[in-house]
Fold:
Amino acid sequence: LGYDRIIDRSNVFECQELWIKAMSNAATKEDFRDKLEGAQVVMGLPTFVFWEQVLEAFPDAKVILTTRDEVAWYRSVLEAKHQLDSEAPAAPLRSGQVLRYVECWMMPSYNKLCDVLRFSWASALGLSFLGNGIMNQHVTCGMFRKHNMYVQQRVPKEKLLVMDVREGWAPLCKFLDIDRPVEPFPAVHDVPYFSLSKAQEHKRRKGLQEGEGQVLQQAMVQELRRGLLAVSVAVLIFLTILMIPLLRETPLVFIMILTTLAAHLALSIWLAVKNIVRRL
Structure:
């Protein structure tokens, strides 16, 4: 459609301070304007949670509510959750409370990114699916219907397009007053949530290009790597500090033994972290 300034889930990391503030009820209109000013399109995760604040900050914006068959939507949500649980780094949706505390302490930047994901999914689908919870089709589809009805009640009709994606380009281009593209309307539900392992093969077979899902995945991997490397450096520094008083008071033979053990432990930790990072 010619739009090149788009904020979607691939921008979660660079906009995460705004989303964190919004999650804690601290974001103002000015915060949304400062971060989203200049964007032509704002969509996807976590915008679908904070769409009212975005609209308050940009009252002249148009709202496009995409709808589809709710059973097909539910199946696509199940597939997306499966990919997040099985292919996303550290499976953020399945993290228990203890693991989240560890994640927050050891990898705070990665934890913030995952908190935005968890908050968005929980706000849209309910808390029951987090961890090992099971998504109930009737409850989930009910929330889908409630969201659609609420948007239609809140947004002025002249600013709202309720669009079934099966309708293709026609209603969208008419609403935006732009020319209809030559390319066929994209089947976005066929795009993997993350371009990893099985999803990569799926993408190759479907002939799909790398998109926002892979950008988000790369951001998560980068933050997790930084956290793991920071932890390994902190452990090495801690071991070094512990060794200093021992070096002053311990006989030479014990110093050699302790130094060897410390070096072996440090090397083991480093190799373990390096192996984890490689797998990411």
